[in-house]
Amino acid sequence: MKFLGFASIIIGCVVPSVLAKPLRRDGFSDCLGANITTVEPSDQGYPAASAPFNQRLAFRPAAIVYPNTPHDVSQVVKCAASQGLAVNARSGGHSYAAYGLGGEDGHVIVDLSKLKSITLDKSSWNVVSETGNLLGELAVSLWNQGQRALPHGTLGNGGHAAFGGFGPFSRVGGLLLDRILSADVVLANGTLVTASTTQNSDLFWAVRGAGASFGIVTSWTFATLPAPKDNIYWEINYSNALSESTFIDALDAMQTFVLTTLSDEFSMQTVVGGGGGGLYLSFQGGYFGKKSDFENIIAPFMAALPDGSQLTSSSSGWLEFLKRENGDESLDTSQAEPTDTFFAKALVTTTAISKSAWASWAAFLFSSAVNTDLSWFVEMDLYGGAVSRVPKNATAFIHRDAIFSIQFYASSQNLQPPYPDDGIPFVTNLLASLDPNPQAAYANYVDPTLSATQWQTQYYGDNYQRLTRIKRKYDPDNVFSFPQSIGLAA
């Protein structure tokens, strides 16, 4: 299974080691001056600075700029806009479509990795986190400063929060964007504004679900939560010898179980993948409460599952739980995240998946997926709880009625280029065999092959038209553009 480590989930991004020099050869560099570190294509450090997380995609930014302060970000945006250059922020740098590099050639990239402040107010327990912080850094800092927590996954704080931010604690605490109290945003004209429910409220609505299209967020203010004292990590595993009928029955039993009234403290992710000539199936998650309560919750699920599964569970502190959720990888942020070469698609379900759909999916998996040379997995996150109690129009994130958010992911065998020709068709069929007509998808699992109508509908639904109106107000010249940015036209 593929995990994006907390250490790489930035609230910003991992800083590449670069040999940089001031960009002085055109109007942009003349405007910017020599005080802000800039890397251009002729620089020795450019290949490292422009390297994508997903090596299937390679783009050539016009420049990569490393601001030290929000004021520097403002200056970069002003200079780029004055030269007609598109601008994109790079926070964690884990966009599946390399939108942190513009998603196409010729953009100015604002790398936020030097914006690292984390300030926790111990009277309100609100935290101001600049968008250069990795989520691992934020989690450790909140714990060390006051045993506080936020619901998040394993990505950067910038893009992760701007497009949703789901994690194992989200059924308790909501999405990461639901904890946002305000955002400091550099607009297309270079001004730095605060967006909240009382200031620039329309912008505040938009940056919570579609933030990259409206400006560069330099810091978020989050309302933190007490870190749970009781943390149970659990797994139910089937070996790769499971049969097709067992696979179907297990998934159907899982869905029946989660559609009952479940405690918000219970989280679940279903993982399917290939290996050893067969499939593996795992149900795993957390419970934030007493072991006896967990045992009472999990017992009917175990009883409903077909034979062949094995349950394991362990109790730990909060940081140890996060490490376990992160695939036993350290929360340490000193090491750069390994790259990958992959393609992914996404699906959000709002109604129960029929048993016939499970069977159709199983037929593809057991006939085709077990024989591919690709390294692939599917992850299904259980939504609901606090996430579903927020109205669909309260933020730009619309998937409040989701049952599952699913990603379908396949890497080249050695995680290196080239990506095989059959990779994209394989992932496409991996999704289509379960749902041939998907209507919703999570924008953090961005799919660059979707048509404009598809991504606008699947990511934003009925919220898209309102987003275009706000885009015209705050970015009328489309400075913050990328292939799937919010458009100016309705």
From TrEMBL:
The FAD-binding PCMH-type domain, residue ranges: 57-227
GO molecular function: FAD binding; oxidoreductase activity
SUPFAM superfamilies named among the record's database cross-references: FAD-binding/transporter-associated domain-like
Named cofactor requirement(s): FAD
Gene3D superfamilies, A to Z: 3.30.465.10, 3.40.462.20
Cleaved signal peptide residues: 1-20
Chain ranges passing through the membrane: none
Domain of life: Eukaryota
Protein name: FAD-binding PCMH-type domain-containing protein
Lineage: Eukaryota, Fungi, Dikarya, Basidiomycota, Agaricomycotina
